[in-house]
Amino acid sequence: MKRALLIISVLLVSFAVFGQSNALAGVDPTGVTINYWFQHSGTNGDAMQKMIADFNATNQWKITVKGEYAGPYDQIYNKMVAAIAANNPPELVVAYQNQSATYAVNNALADMNVYVNDPKWGVGKDLSDYFQGFINQDVNAQFGGKRLGFPPNRSVEVMYVNMALLKSVGISAAPLTWKDFADDAAKVTNTATGTYGYALDNLDASHVYSFVVSRGGEIARSDGKGYTLNTPQMKAVMSYMRDLVVKGYAHKIPKKYDDQTDFGNGLAAFTTSSTSGLTYYAAAVNANKNGAFDWAIAPIPQATSTNAPAIDLYGASVSIPKSTPQKQLAAWLFVKWFSEPKQQAQWTHVSKYFPVRKSAEPLIKDMLDADKNFAAAWNLLKTANLKSEPPYAGYDLVRDAITAAYSKVLDGADVDATLAALQTQADKLFKDSAP
Amino acid sequence: MEIEARRHVPPRKKLTGGTILVYALLVVGATVCIVPFLYMLATSLKTVGETITRVDPLPWRADFWPAVPQWKNYLSSWRDANFSLYFRNSVLTALITVAGLIVTSSLAAYAFAKIRFAGSRVMFAIFVATLIIPDSVYLIPNFITITKFGWYDTLAGLTVPFMASAFFIFLLRQFFAQLPNELLESARMDGAGHIRSFASIVMPLSGAPLFTVAFLAFIGSWNSLQWPLVATRTERWRPLTVGLTTFMTEAGPQNQLRMAGAMIAVLPVVILFFFAQKQFTEAIARSGIKG
C-alpha cells in the first residue's frame, strides 16, 4: 500500500512539474502550411514577404508560411471576427492586446506561454534578452495570465520638439516636467507669428493614457478587474490640458496627423506621437518652406523630473488562433524565428520599428549612428518605465469613451462630472465585454 | 436648311437680378463640388512632405498646389498597389454584380408591381423593411454562407451576395407600377405571358431607371472595401479600394499615393456619370423618389 502511494505521489509530482512541458510532446510541425494575416503594406509589406520567403526556404521543418496583407488593423479585426464565427481563421494574425482579448473571449486563441516556455521549442535562456516590458504586455490578467500574443516589434510614445523655436525664445532644452512644459508653451505662443506650444490630438486615447502614466497613474487595475478612470491623475490631465487650450498655448488639431502639419510648418513647439512616425515628422520638417529646422524627440514630460520616465508602449503583437497542434507549433516557430536578433535587425532597417531583443543593438548600429532622433528614442527605451494600455476585451469602446470625455472637457465640461460618467460607462463596457 | 435651323434657336433671355442670383449660387455650388476634386489632384502631385505642410484648402493660393508636380506618384501608385490587377478585378466584379442585380431586381420588381398574388403586399413590406438593417449586420452571415459554399477568395464570393437588393427592387417597382396596365393587358390578349410582357414591353420602356440601378450598383461595388477584404485571402480578386488602403500605415498616410490612386479609381465612375447623367436624373424624377 505504501509503495503504491509512493508511486502515485511520484507520478503526480512528475506530472505537475513536467505537465506543461509535455504539452508539445510528440507534435511534429514538419511540412505544415500556415496563413499569416498582417497589416504591413508598401515597403514594409514587401520586406515582410521577403522575410517570410527566407523563412520558408531555410527552416528545417519545411514549414510554409503564406503571408497576406489583410488590410488595416480595424479591417483585420472585422475579418477575424467573421473568420472565427465561420471557423476559418488564419494560423497567425496581427492583433493589438485588446483585440486578442476579444478573440480569446470566443476561446479562439492559443496560450503562447505553452510555446514560449517549452523546453524544446521555447525561447529558453534568451527570454532575458527580450525587453521585459515588451513581452509582459501580452500576458493578460483578464484571462488568468495567459499569453495571448508575442511582440514582433515595438514603438513608444514620445514628444517631438521644435528646438529652433524653443531656442528663439531662450529655451535650450526640452521640458522634462509638466510645469516646464506649460511655461515653455507660454513662452513660444505668439499670436502675431502664429506659433504656439502644443499641437493637441484629442482624437486618440493613447495620448491621455500617456499623460496619466506620466503623472504616476493608471487607467486599469493590475488584477485585470476593471478600469480606474476617475482618478486624481486623470483629473489633473484633463484640467491641465484644458487650461493650455483656454490660454491658447495648445491648439486642438482638426483631424488625425494634422499635428504633423503645424509641427512641419514650424508653428507648434511640441507634439506627441509614436516613434513609428519619425519618418513623417522628418519629411514634414524637410518640406518646411524656410528650410529644415532643428528638432528633436524627448520623453513625455513627467510629474517630476526622473531618469526613468513612464512612457506608453505601442505596437501590435501576433497571436496564434487555435487550429491543430502542428499548425500552432509551426506558427510559433515562425514567430520565434522572426524575433531572433538577425531578423529583428533586418526588420528594423526597413520598418523603423524597434527590435524586441537587446542583442539586436549592434546590428542596428548604423541606424543609430545615422539618425540622432532614432538613437535618442532607442536609448529612451532602455531606461524608461514602459507602460501598456489595458489589454481588456472591449477596450476599443472604452478608448472611444475616453476621447469623447477628453473632448468634452476641452470644450468646457465639468471635469468631475465627466470623469464620473466615464467611469460608469467604462464599468458597464467592461462587464459587457468580459469573458 | 439653314433657315430651319435658325428657327430653333431659342430667344435670348434677359439677365434679371434673379437670374444673376441663380447663376451666382450655381457657381458657388459648382466650386464647392469641384474643390475636393482639385484637392485630390493637387495632393496626388505633391511630395510626402508637401502633403503634410502644404495644405491650404483654397485653390487660388500657392500652397494648395505642389511646388513641383510629382507625376511619378501615379506610376508609383499604380505599381506599388498592384493596380493593373486590382483595376481588372474592380471592373469584373462591378460588371458581374450589376448584371446579376439588374436581372433579380427587375424580375422581382415586375412581380411586385404587376402580378397579383397572395401575400404580395406583405412580402413587399418585408423586403422594404430590410432596408433598415445596417450592412455590417450581414457581414458574418454572408461570410459563413460563402465559406460553406466554397466561395471564399473567389469571384462568386465577391459578387453573388450583392446580386439582390431590396432598395433596387423598391426603386424599380415604383417605376414599373406607373406603366399603364392596358399595355400589358393588350399584350396578354395577343398571347404574351409574363416573361414576354416583361422582356418586350416593360424592359424597353424602363431604360432610365434600369440605367440608374446599374449606375448606383456600379458605384456601390466599385467603392466597397470591407467585404472584399473579408471575403478574400489573396490578391487574385481584390479590387482597387483594397489597393488604396495599402497607402495608409500605422505611422501615417502616404497621401500623395492615396490621392493618385483615388484619381485612377474615380475616373471610370466620373466617365460613367458623364454619359449617364441624363438617364439618372430622368429616372429619379419618374420614380418619384426625392433626396
Major β-sheet annotation of chain B:
none
* Overall strand count of chain A: 13
Span of the ends, CA to CA of chain B: 44 Å
Radius of gyration computed on alpha carbons of chain B: 24 Å
Fraction of residues in helix of chain A: 40-55%
Which second-level CATH architecture of the largest domain in chain B applies?
Answer: Orthogonal Bundle
Structural class of chain A: alpha/beta
Count of DSSP-assigned helices of chain B: 15
Which spans of chain A of ≥5 residues are poorly predicted at pLDDT below 50? 11-20
| CATH superfamily heading of the largest domain in chain B | MetI-like
Describe the overall structure.
The complex is a heterodimer of chains A (435) and B (291). Chain A is α/β, with parallel strands linked by helices. Chain A has two domains: 29-154 and 315-387, Periplasmic binding protein-like II (D-Maltodextrin-Binding Protein, domain 2), CATH 3.40.190; 155-313 and 392-433, 3-Layer(aba) Sandwich (D-Maltodextrin-Binding Protein, domain 2), CATH 3.40.190.10. Helices cover 46% and strands 13% of the residues of chain A. Chain A is built from 18 helices and 13 strands. In chain A, the strands form three sheets. In chain A, strands 6, 7, 8, 9, 10, 11 and 13 form a seven-stranded mixed beta sheet that branches. Chain A has a four-stranded mixed beta sheet with strand order 2-1-3-12. In chain A, strands 4-5 form a two-stranded antiparallel ribbon. In chain A, helix 2 links the parallel strand 1 and strand 2. In chain A, helix 2 runs antiparallel to helix 14 and helix 11 crosses helix 12 (278-286). The longest helix of chain A is centred in the last third of the chain and has 19 residues, at 415-433. The radius of gyration of chain A is 24 Å and the shape is globular. The two termini of chain A are 45 Å apart. By secondary structure, chain B is mostly helical. Chain B has two domains: 2-70, no CATH class; 77-287, Orthogonal Bundle (MetI-like fold), CATH 1.10.3720.10. Chain B is 71% helix and 0% strand. In chain B, helix 2 runs antiparallel to helix 15, helix 4 (72-80) crosses helix 15 and helix 5 packs across helix 9. Chain B starts with a helix and ends with a helix. The model of chain B has no long low-confidence stretch (mean pLDDT 88). Chain A binds chain B through residues 35, 39, 41-42, 44-45, 68-73, 75, 78-79, 81-83, 85-86, 88, 257, 260-261, 264-265, 274, 276-280, 283-284, 286-289, 352, and chain B through 47-50, 52-55, 80, 139-140, 143-144, 147, 152, 225-226, 229-230, 233-234, 242, 245-254.
